[in-house]
Specification:
CATH class of the largest domain: Mainly Alpha
Strand order of the largest sheet: 1-3-2-6-4-5
Radius of gyration: 22 Å
Number of domains: 2
Structural class: alpha/beta
Number of helices: 8
CATH topology of the largest domain: DNA polymerase, domain 1
Largest sheet: 6 strands, mixed
Order of helices and strands: EHEEHEEEHHHHHH
Helix content: 25-40%
Bound molecules: FE2/S2 (inorganic) cluster
Strand content: 5-15%
Shape: elongated
């Protein structure tokens, strides 16, 4: 069993009241003897040694510490470990199998959805929560689901593409091809401020229609 005492020497730890927690994490049952004030993020990283869960701010802002608790995304820097007692927690280490990446991981790889990678585990866990509920999200729904996760490398455009790529793969469809990053069509997906194409005249549309009819 893991024993975890924050910022205390072993001698002092003997004086501290602790409590036992039992958590199913990534499908494995684990127990830990901890201080009631211990944060879930710190139990995951320092106690269970699952260091894929990152802590970027410790103040519920960045989302790097996002894990799933009973399927719902939570910022583990803002959850006491005792609150996870008796619950099921999934971290980024729980996504891949021994032989295969999860489609979300494949999507981030394929669509270059990361730069430094610090935000990536949290992004992936928020994406997993979304796709577990909605396998066919719109771009706006992806953006909303990831709105609690910050990326300092400003890679949002490719992150959104990565999640849409994963959604298609999980639906059993061929993942979309977004084109090379320099391609104008690739920029359209996230450029909310992009100007709309000029409206075409009715005459031009009619001319096109009739041309299509002949072909
Ligand atoms: S470390 Fe938890 S939100 Fe930033
Ligand atoms: S990839 Fe660097 S913070 Fe997101």
């Amino acid at each position: 069993m893991t024993s975890l005492f924050e910022e205390l020497q072993p001698a002092a730890a003997a004086e501290v009241q602790t409590t036992r927690v039992d958590i199913k994490i990534n499908g494995e049952y684990k127990a830990a003897q901890i201080e009631p004030r211990l944060l879930l993020a710190h139990l995951i990283r320092n106690g269970f040694r699952l260091t894929g869960t990152h802590t970027g701010c410790d103040t519920t802002n960045c989302g790097a510490c996002t894990v799933l608790m009973d399927g719902a995304p939570v910022k583990s820097c803002t959850v006491f470990a005792v609150q996870a007692n008796g619950h099921e927690v999934t971290t980024v280490e729980g996504l891949a199998t021994a032989s295969e990446l999860h489609p979300i991981q494949e999507g981030f790889k394929d669509e270059h959805g990361l730069q430094c990678g610090f935000c990536t585990p949290g992004m992936m866990m928020s994406a997993k929560a979304l796709l577990d509920e909605n396998l066919n999200p719109t771009e706006d729904e992806v953006r909303w689901a990831l709105s609690g996760n910050l990326c300092r490398c400003t890679g949002y455009q490719n992150i959104v593409k990565a999640v849409l790529w994963a959604a298609a793969k999980m639906r059993g469809e061929a993942p979309p091809t977004f084109g090379a990053p320099a391609d104008d069509s690739a920029d359209e997906i996230a450029d909310d401020s992009a100007e709309q194409p000029e409206e075409r005249s009715d005459e031009a549309a009619i001319a096109d229609d009739s041309a299509g009819g002949e072909g």
